[in-house]
C-alpha cells in the first residue's frame, strides 16, 4: 500500500513543517529551527505513538485545513482551537480518526498563537541537514505551506495506550521569563539592569519565529561603541538600538552585533511561543 498524503486545503496565516530542528550546524551559520513549542510537539507525537521528534505542522493564529487520501489518525494540540472533520466538531488535544477524503480543519486559536497538527507516521518530506524543519531566516527546509500543497505521511506505528487526559498546558495569560545576565550585561547602566528585571513589558505584534519582540521601557547603554559580531544562542536577549529587548527564538541568526544582556533558558521558551501580542511580560533573574 502506498503511503498516505495530505492535500493542503487552507494553509492559514503561516503553517510550517517542524520537528526537533537541525542541531550542530551553528558554526556554518545554520540556525537550529524546529518547533517553537517543543513540549506541545512531543505530547502530540506521544499520543499517536510517533517518535517524539516526528515532523508536525506548526500553525500560526488561524490554523489550517487538510484532506488525506487515506484514513489517518491526527492530534491537534498546542494553542487551543476548534477542530472539525467535514464540519463536525471533534476533540482538540486527543487522537481523531480522519476518513479518506474528509477535511480536517484546525481553526483559529482561542488562546495562544501556535497549534500543532501531528499525524500518525509523521510528515515525511525530505530532510535537509538532518531535519524536516522550515527555517524562515535561512530558507532551509520546506517552504511554508500553500493551498494545494501535497504532504507525504509515514507509516504509523502501533497505537499506544492513551492516558485519560493529556496534560496540555494553557497558553500564558502573563509571561515570566527567567534570565541569566550576561555576557554583555556590562554594556548597560546599573539603572537599565534594574529596569530590565523590574519593569513590565508587553509582547509586540512584530514578534515571529526569529524573535519575541517587546514593547516597554528602553534600556540605556553604558558603552555606546560598536560590538563585533559574535555567536548567538537560543534564548539570547539582544538589545537593538531602540533599547527594547528581543528574545531570540528558534530561527534566530547565529551571529549578531548588538549586545546580549542575558539569556533565557530553553525550557522557558515554550511559553514565549504561545504569548499573544499584548501579553504582559516580565524578566526575572534566574537562580
Concise summary:
This protein is mainly β. The protein contains three helices and 20 strands.
Can you describe what's shown?
The structure is a single chain. Helix content is 8%, strand content 28%. It is mostly beta strands and 287 residues long. The strands form four sheets. A seven-stranded mixed barrel has the order 12-19-16-17-14-13-20. It has a six-stranded antiparallel β-sheet with strand order 7-6-9-4-1-11, with no helix packed on it. A five-stranded antiparallel β-sheet has the order 2-3-10-5-8, with helices on one face. The N and C termini lie far apart (55 Å).
Layout of helices and strands:
Elements: E1 5-10, E2 16-18, H1 38-48, E3 56-58, E4 64-68, E5 72-78, E6 83-85, E7 88-90, E8 96-98, E9 104-106, E10 115-119, E11 150-152, E12 174-181, H2 190-196, E13 201-203, E14 211-215, E15 230-231, E16 236-238, E17 246-248, E18 255-256, E19 260-263, H3 269-274, E20 280-285
Parallel strand pairs: 12-20
Antiparallel strand pairs: 1-4, 1-11, 2-3, 3-10, 4-9, 5-8, 5-10, 6-7, 6-9, 12-19, 13-14, 13-20, 14-17, 15-18, 16-17, 16-19
The multimeric state of the shown protein is single chain
What share of the residues lie within helices?
A: under 10%
The secondary-structure class comes to mainly beta
Number of helices: 3
Taking Cα atoms only, what radius of gyration do you get, to the nearest Å? 20 Å
Strand order of the largest sheet: 12-19-16-17-14-13-20
Spatial separation of the terminal alpha carbons: 55 Å
SSE pattern, N- to C-terminal? EEHEEEEEEEEEEHEEEEEEEHE
Mean pLDDT: 94
